[in-house]
Known about the structure:
single chain; alpha/beta; Metallo-beta-lactamase, Chain A; 2 domains; seven-stranded mixed beta sheet; 14 helices; globular; binds zinc ion
Amino acid sequence: MKTSIQDNLTFLGAAGTVTGSKTLFENNGKRILIDCGLFQGLKELRKLNWVNLPIPVDSIETVLLTHAHLDHCGYLPVLTRNGYKGPIHCTKATKELTNIILLDSAKIQEEDAERANRHSYTRHKEAKPLYTIEDVHRTMDLFITHDYNEWVIHNNDVKFCFKNSGHILGASMIEIQTDEHKILFSGDLGRRDPMLLYPRKVMKDADVLILESTYGDRLHSEENIKHELREVILETYKNRGILMIPTFAVERTQELMFLLNDLMVTESIPKIPIYLDSPMGINSTNVYDKYPDLHNHSRYVIKQMYEIAHYVSDYQQSRSVVQDSKPKIVLAGSGMLEGGRILHYLNNHMNSPKNTLLFVGYQGVGTRGRAILEGAKEIKFFGQYHKVNCQIRSITGLSGHADQEEIIEWLNGFRKKPKQIFLNHGEPHQRDALRTKLNFLFPEIDVILPEPYIPYPLIE
Ligand SMILES: [Zn+2]
């Protein structure tokens, strides 16, 4: 097997984990960074955010961003603070969502550092935020936006293009064409039939594919999500209770609004007041509302669904909704109960069995959401323990990532299969399982599980 001396890939994150996505592509010694994500979750991983990249930041010519999730964009402000001055390319919707997400992330980090200093958690020195709101503003100035399918000439040897990945609004795969290779970065690959967006683009060919493997070992449940949601709403309504739904601001909130609107207009549920009590959820929803052409629904339905909820951004208003115990449906962040306004609802209403807490997304290890799902009878927040007496329900079928079957279905669409596939963005067992399956189905493809920080030459 001949390998190229011109093109190689180095994985600076998301190699054997699902966060910290950063892939360095080198062409004739020139460097392009694809995604620049934050490590999240376990402390061991989060510590990596404080370690400098193994290359000088100013040796990177360009950054290409697949989408606005923090595990793909959340390290960008560190990059700019450390001296990166080049462009950051992405789609228009990705830029707008990234701005919202990075500002929120910086605010949390500034508050955490401030709290740590106030309570002197850190014995030796002053706690510093990983980055500040100021760093985010400087980062956003570097953005250059593009439409899907628009080829961008980077230099004489390299051009690139964003293609719809159907994962969240604006999310893309990125195709890079060099003299020697057509390289495709899947980014986070969406479902075969997303609820709001157009399905991921079917690709015809690539020499090298960098493929995510978040759900490389699993199949999503086939349950009817709308039906399940209806059941939980009716059950809570019968109890005259409050339905509390912790949600992620981007995509999941909008999907729920779509489902709630659908149930409401078909009179499948009674007219219960719905509140979106999440400034970040509201800001993200406004971005979704601005891009009706990226939705796979009529403008009429889009307008209707985004009017289904009362938007609560003001803190005083939020307090009065929290204190009112009339039946209602509340969507509030954060999605795993790690902070945000949902905690105020839990503080007031988790104690009563007539109310329901409904999980609609993945709950990470070590989060309050995971503890409750695993049967914890009390959880701690606001400096106190709170009893979990409300009903606990969970809908598992909502996901923005293709499962194993959907990944393979998408790969089957290639008329000419890649020669090399690098599996990133998956836990070890997930990418192992996907490799085994790919080896079985496509024995001619070289499937690689990249290790961090090692340069991998591309096959010629
Ligand atoms: Zn994502």
